[in-house]
Design brief:
Blueprint (H helix, E strand, L loop, with lengths): L2 H9 L4 H12 L4 H8 L5 H40 L18 H15 L3 E2 L5 E2 L1 H4 L25 E2 L5 H9 L4 E10 L11 E11 L4 H16 L5 E6 L4 E12 L6 E12 L1 H7 L5 E8 H9 L12 H4 L7
Parallel strand pairs: 1-4
Antiparallel strand pairs: 2-3, 4-5, 5-9, 6-7, 7-8, 8-9
The structure holds 3,4-dihydroxyphenylalanine.
The site of 3,4-dihydroxyphenylalanine (DAH) has 12 residues, from strand 8 and strand 9.
């Protein structure tokens, strides 16, 4: 390879590897130029000077060409990378589908809005409760048959998953002084055989109002106000006698409404209510007050309002079901 061929080979070396091979062949320890330089020793001084100068010029030219090619290859590689990684900031981004609140969350928020607007505080209690708060302080004596209606899951240390939100009445009253108005949303548990209308976990909303002269008329008014806020003016409510240990008198309440699917007007049984039992006030150390309480299941309200007929659909986490209930409550 003569000098010009060497320069051409360098200028067209396809990559760093080929360029390095050329460098070794030309300028390495056993390279062509190196060999020729070594041969200078055999020449007479006159020739050595001219040939030597020429060899050194060629050597510098080759070194410069190799450096130039190296730089060109590196620039080309960088440009290729920049082109490959180029981002067009003017393109629209990928669309992230908007999430939404679960139907039960929506209904709960709606209820809390209603009660907040009526001046109620909002509180939450523990899901893992003890016998005292879940039963004893709510006037369920040990062995009382009313406990059987609320079978639940117990821990090995004798605590239980709360069967209702009512225990928070006790916790809340102990931490405050009357008068008070509070609602308690939350998850509750029952040892149920699961079917279309029973789950081992569901949600309730509890309400408690305590003051000096709170009467059953106030209870009736509160339920009617809630029903009106949810379903519109002219909503009628009904109380019918029932038994819960922590209220006396106790009742079940229903609201008169038009079923959204059948179009039929009917009573919708929603929950239990009553005047707080004196034994409950005794348990929390309250004197000279009266109060009312009510509580109901959130699933049932959500289901009848949306036409969901199987409670298990609310817990399966199937978006095809859940996405039908965007912004319904
Ligand atoms: N805690 C009751 C239950 O889960 C419902 C209930 C009834 C709540 C009467 C109340 C009430 O506050 O006064 O079955």
């Amino acid at each position: 390879m003569d000098h010009d061929e060497a320069l051409t080979a360098i200028a067209s070396a396809p990559d760093a590897r080929a360029l390095q091979d050329l460098r070794v062949r030309l300028l390495g320890k056993k390279g062509a130029i190196t060999e020729q330089l070594r041969g200078l020793a055999a020449l007479d001084p006159e020739a050595r000077r001219t040939v030597g100068r020429e060899l050194h010029e060629r050597k510098s030219a080759l070194e410069a060409a190799i450096e130039a090619r190296k730089g060109a290859l590196e620039r080309a590689a960088l440009e290729a990378r920049l082109a490959a990684e180029r981002v067009d900031l003017t393109l629209p981004g990928p669309r992230v589908p908007a999430g939404g609140h679960h139907l039960l969350t929506q209904v709960t928020h709606r209820l809390l809005d209603v009660f907040r607007s009526l001046g109620y505080d909002v509180a939450v209690g523990p899901e893992l409760e003890d016998d005292h708060h879940n039963f004893e302080a709510l006037n369920f004596p040990p062995e009382h048959p009313a406990r059987d209606a609320q079978d639940t899951f117990w821990t090995t240390d004798g605590r239980l998953l709360r069967t209702h939100t009512s225990p928070m009445q006790v916790r809340y009253m102990r931490e405050r002084t009357p008068p008070l108005k509070v609602v308690v949303p939350g998850r509750v548990f029952r040892n149920e055989a699961v079917d279309a209308t029973h789950e081992a976990q569901f949600h309730q909303l509890e309400a408690l109002v305590v003051g000096e002269r709170v009467t059953m008329a106030d209870l009736r008014g509160a339920i009617t106000e809630m029903a009106t806020a949810l379903l519109g003016t002219g909503t009628r409510t009904r109380l019918q006698p029932s038994y819960f240990p922590f209220v006396e008198p106790g009742a079940e309440f229903a609201i008169w409404w038009t079923h959204p699917k059948t179009g039929r007007e009917e009573w919708l049984e929603l929950g239990g209510c009553g005047m707080v039992h004196p034994n409950v006030f005794r348990a929390v150390g309250y004197e000279n007050v009266t109060g009312f309480a009510f509580g109901f299941g959130i699933e049932r309200l959500a289901m009848v309002r949306t036409g969901v007929t199987d409670i298990r659909d609310l817990y399966r986490g199937d978006v095809r079901v859940l996405e039908q209930f965007r912004g319904v409550a």
